[in-house]
């Protein structure tokens, strides 16, 4: 459940930032970039937290 929360939160946060950037700068490419960046950041955080073996 925590992993899914990381993914959803990352997509929503960075997607929201992309949407705001699109809205205020009158562009159309920031939302998809924000969604992809949020997914990549979420996967990275999940890997760092649960994937590393010490």
From the structure above, extract its key features.
mainly alpha
Write up what this structure looks like.
With 54 residues, this protein is mainly α. It has one domain. 85% of the residues lie in helices and 0% in strands. The two termini are 23 Å apart. 15% of the residues are buried.
Overall body shape: elongated
Q: Estimate nothing, just give the exact number of structural domains.
A: 1
How many β-strand runs? 0
Q: What gap, in angstroms, lies between the N and C termini?
A: 23 Å
The ordered string of helix (H) and strand (E) elements is HH
Uncertain segments are none
Q: Classify the secondary structure makeup into a structural class.
A: mainly alpha
Number of helices: 2
Bin the strand percentage.
under 5%
From the alpha carbons, calculate the radius of gyration and give it in angstroms. Answer: 13 Å
Mean pLDDT: 94
What's the story with the biggest beta sheet?
none
The percent range for helix content is: over 70%
């Amino acid at each position: 459940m925590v992993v899914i929360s990381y993914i959803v939160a990352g997509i929503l946060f960075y997607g929201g930032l992309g949407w705001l950037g699109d809205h205020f700068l009158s562009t159309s490419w920031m939302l998809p970039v924000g969604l992809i960046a949020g997914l990549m950041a979420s996967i990275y955080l999940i890997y760092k937290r649960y994937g590393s073996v010490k």
